[in-house]
Structures are given as C-alpha cells and as structure tokens.
Amino acid sequence: EKEWPRPAECRVVTIANQKGGVGKTTTSVNLAASLAMHGAQVLVVDLDPQGNASTALGIDHHADVPSIYEVLIEDLPMKDIVVPAPEIPNLHCAPANLNLAGAEIELVSKVARESRLRRALDSYDTGMFDYVLIDCPPSLGLLTVNALVGGDELLIPIQCEYYALEGLGQLIRTVDLVKSHLNPGLNVSTILLTMYDARTRLAAQVAEDVRNHFGDVVLNTVIPRSVRVSEAPSYGQSVMTYDPGSSGALAYSEAASEMAHRGASE
Ligand code: ADP
Ligand code: MG
C-alpha cells in the first residue's frame, strides 16, 4: 500500500455523536485500519462499555482483561492495557468491556472527573502514534466528556436520515461548554456522512443540509450503506481486511486518505 503523509505530532481524534447506530464504531475501526495500512501508527481507544470497537479489531476484552475502565477509575497506566490488533500491523487498541458501564457513575465522585482520559494519555507515550482515535458511547455523559477533553479534534459521523441534524445542536453545545471550560484546543475538524443510501432522495437532501451548514469540515467522501461493512465485525475484522475491494472498504480508505492529507490544522 502507498504511504500517506504522517502528522508531525500525534492527532488525537474523538469520534462522537450521542445518537446510537450512526457509525461511530464502524468509522473508528475502519479509519484506524486504513491509516495503519498506509504506514501510520494508530491507537484505537474503546470508550464504549459495549466494547464493539474491541470486538471489531479482534481484541480479547473479557471482564478480566485490563481495560480502559482500570485506566479511568484505578489509575492503571495506558501502557498496561494497550494491545496490538492481530490482523493489521501498526494498529493498537485500548480495549473496553462491560465494567466500563459502571464508570459513568463512579467517575462522578473522582477528582478531575472530566480529565481522567486526558491525564492518562498525557502520561502515556502517545508520541509513538500518529493517530489516537477515541470511539465514544452513544451518550453525552462523563465518558464522552472525557473523550472531548482528551481529544484535539472531533470527528462527527452523521447518518443521512431525517433526524440526523436534530441531536447535533446538543452535541455542539456540549462541545462549546468543553471548549470554554476544559479543552480550549478542541476543534470540530471532520464530519463524515455514513450509511448513505444513494437511492433515496432524503439521503441526498440531508447530505446537502449538512454540507450547507458545516461547509468544508464535511469530508467529500461519503460512506455508502454496504452489507460487507456490517458483516466484518462478526469476523473480528475491519472491512479493510474482510473485503478490501468492497464499496465500504474503498470509501473508508478514501475518507482516511482525505483525513491524512487535510492534516490537523484544518
Ligand atoms: P455506533 O457506534 O454509532 O452505535 P455502529 O458503527 O455500531 O454505530 O453502526 C451501527 C450498525 O450499523 C452496526 O450494525 C454496523 O455494522 C452498521 N453499519 C455501520 N456502517 C454501515 C455501512 N456503511 N453499511 C452498512 N451497515 C453499516
Ligand atoms: Mg459504537
């Protein structure tokens, strides 16, 4: 595979949208795989108690595997939980499991409860990575706030359907609060249109609305709905290795290339 430009410094990209099922995990896993396949060192931080990103990367994440829960709640160093993804060189994962469901409550009484992921990343050698991608749960609770405080960039996946824009105002308000109080450097750098169904007029309309509203932040590449994308996780794989020639894999590769070439500054 051709190498893409690598950032001068590690880009920590938070992938968030409080709506469930919009493609956060699919996007995290497949962008991470594409970037790694083009020469970047990539870490996926699974911050969803469902552990779907860990599953899709073929990572063991049973309840007794050291996970992001212990990092956030028990101050275990990141280096003690990060493991290589079996399928793809240069790709690593900080796994999550159902223990993390309790963290949403347990964090409330912790010191610096919003900044625990940032502190864990700061004391970890993220300089060895080109990208850290943080996969968020479908809520705006403390786990997602930790991801917004821990990231430099926010990538919002948007599914092209009728209610897509409805929840976005709430997300943007949370981002503004985080920016003014906790992480002034957070930049909404990227919006990715996911699960696009070219046969429906509605999808085209929603895509147009999103582009009118957010402008250049929206990647040119749109991810089509593709059965291969949804099949890949059950084989513990990204679609990039499961079916590299499929429309979903090609689109995620395009999107990752755009991200890499745009760089952190835009
Ligand atoms: P989230 O993490 O936002 O909850 P997921 O990435 O888990 O969303 O996606 C929700 C569901 O949609 C999953 O079953 C996933 O496999 C499927 N899916 C995601 N993207 C696509 C796509 N481009 N084509 C077909 N199915 C998709
Ligand atoms: Mg998910």
From TrEMBL:
Domain AAA: 11-187
Family as reported in the entry's similarity comment: Belongs to the ParA family.
Function: May play a role in septum formation.
Identification of the protein by name: Chromosome partitioning protein
Stretch of the intact protein here: 63 to 328 of 328
